Amino acid sequence: MESLGLDITKVPIDLVLNLLNIVLLFLIVRTLAYKPIRKFMDARTERVNAEARAAGEKAAEAEKLKAEYAALLENGEAVKQAQADEARKAADAEKDRILAEANAKAAQIVREAREQAQKEHDEALGAMRQDVVDLAFDISEKLLEHSITDDDTKKLADRLFDSRVGGEESA
Amino acid sequence: MNIVTGIKLAASAVVFVVFLVLWCKKRHDTLSEPDPKKAKKKRRLPFFGMVISAWFFVACVVNLVTGGPKGISLELEMFSPRVQIGPLSVARTTLTAYVLMLVIAVLCVLFRVFAYPRFRDEPKGLQNALEAAVEFIDKFTRDTAGDLSPALPAYMFSVAVMLIGCAASELLGQRPPTSDLLFTFSLALCTFFLLNYYGVRKKGLFGRVKSLASPSPMIMPMRMLSDVAAPVSLACRLFGNMLGGMIVMDLLKNSLGGYAVGVTTLAGLYFNLFHPLIQTYIFIILSLTFIREATE
Amino acid sequence: MGFATSKAVDATARQPEASGKINSILLLGLALAESTAIYSFVIALILAVK
Question: With 80 as the cut, is the pLDDT of residue C23 above it?
Fold first, then answer.
């Protein structure tokens, strides 16, 4: 085996040296190049993920707030609507009430006026009657030339007046 | 200065000038051509004439300056010549491997001290390339061998860096460490050790032996043999490919003698760059496949 | 190896988008298939230099 180009007793040295070489190379490359790059890339991925998560959270919060405000707006609309209806109803009721009051007052005034008219009519009738009685009395006094007692005359006058007034009224 | 050399120089220079004039004329003629491809085709002959005469001229000049080759010879040793260091006699390729390791270590230190503190969130340039490489190897290891430990992608990364360095050292004219059977065998031994380690860690010592004995205890010796044959095949594949590439390049250089000026560079594009890269890719894929097989 | 290449070309013709993956698989297969020839080369070397 000498012509193989290598000394057979020296083979393990080469193998051991090569193995040592590879182990040293692995350690050096790993600690100086691979690990720092890996660490940097992982940190960056983590940062990007955290930012994306925060952005997602903010978006969700914004959505929630927007929904809240929209609900509030709708609510406000409804409340406004309800209030408007209520006010309208109250206004209608008020209107009815005022109308009824006015009507009642008008009716009352009319009734009072009618009563007043009736009362004045009666008063006037009474006064007229009294005047007519007095006049008749005076006339009868003058005609009869002596004083008539009040009761007789009153009864006479009343009968006369009633027939006259009845006739007048029926005329 | 020989008369023959002088004639050769003068002749090649004249031929070069002739072809240059022809090329310029053809270019001027075909300026009005609408199709650029056809125009290029017309200029092809003068162009090649120019290239060949230029090559000849440069080769003559180099021969003149360096005194020409000492004769055509091809020496081939399976194992590299040995060098005496102190009481030991080591192979030259081991020395080359150590020099490579030192160069890589210096590069790593430079990277760590200068480039790493300047890392930004948006990668550019060197940072982009390094991050892409680390990401690729990490994902690749995870896909092929599963998530075993964070040191495994680091080991594959360092092996890849070493093998690419060996390809570069071949470009510089040295005999690359990968054309030494002992170097590739030590790499394969590391893979063998790793696959046993991960197998034992995942399944326990008894589990690993048991998995060798499945599906039946009768085939246990065959399974053990195939287990041992795995790193041997890795080593032989890498060694054979690299040695074959080196032999082809040596043949080319030695057969052309003094005129091996530009041709060896072009052939070196394939044999010293592309071929070793494919072989490192194969090595890493196969290592990861063996590790996966041992941990399943 | 020529057979493997022809199969790879067929697969690429069927689905051109997967041509990158097919390319890498092809290279892997070719290197593994070539390794048998390389083993014989190594053995021949060992026998020749002996």
Answer: yes
CB contact under 8 A, A34 and B182: no
Q: Which two three-digit tokens encode residue B89?
A: 């006699």
| Chain B residue numbers touching C34 (CB-CB < 8 A) | 241
Cβ(B78)–Cβ(C46) under 8 Å?
Answer: yes
DSSP chain A: -GGGSS-GGGHHHHHHHHHHHHHHHHHHHIIIIIHHHHHHHHHHHHHHHHHHHHHHHHHHHHHHHHHHHHHHHHHHHHHHHHHHHHHHHHHHHHHHHHHHHHHHHHHHHHHHHHHHHHHHHHHHHHHHHHHHHHHHHHHHHHHH-SPPPHHHHHHHHHHHHHHHHHHHHH-
- CATH number where C12 lies: 1.20.20.10
Q: Per the omega criterion (within 30 degrees of 0), is the bond before B123 cis?
A: no
Which parts of chain B are beta strand (E)?
A: 82-85, 88-91
Q: Write down the domain spans for chain B.
A: 3-66, 119-295
- C48 to chain A, any CB pair closer than 8 A? The answer is no
Write out the residue range of the structural domain in which residue C32 sits: 2-49
Nearest CA in chain A to B113: A32
Q: What is the mean pLDDT of residues A86-91?
A: 91
B270 touches chain C (CB under 8 A): no
A15 min Cα distance to partner chain C (Å): 19
Q: How many domains does chain C have?
A: 1
This prediction has a pTM of 0.71
Percent of chain A with pLDDT over 90: 31
- Residues B124-142 pLDDT 10s: 888 888 889 999 999 989 9
Query: Mean pLDDT, to the nearest integer, of C9-27?
Result: 85
pLDDT tens digits for range A30-68: 999 888 888 888 898 999 999 999 999 999 999 999 999
